[in-house]
Amino acid sequence: MHSRHQRLASLTKLLTSHVNVGRHRDALAFFSRMVSDPSLPPLSDPSFAYAFPLALKSSSALRLPSAAAAADSLHALAAKCGFLSSPFFASALVASYGACASPALARRLFDELPHRNAIVCSAMISVHIRSGDLAGALRELDLMDVAPTASCFNSVIAAVAESGEHPARAIDLYRRMQRMGVLPSLITLLALVPSCTALGALSSIKEVHGFATRHGMFASCHLGSSLIEAYGRCGSLAGARNVFDQVQERDVVVWSSIVSAYAFHGHADVAMSLFRHMELDNVRPDGIMFLGVLKACGHAGHADDALKYFDVLTKIFGVEACGDHYSCLVDVLGRAGRLRQAYDVIQTMPVKVTAKAWGALLAACRKYGEVGLAEVAGRALFEIEPENAGNFVSLANIYSGMGMHDKAEQVRREMEQRGVRRLPGSSWMIHCKSRC
Question: What are the transmembrane regions (predicted)?
Answer without folding.
Answer: 182-202
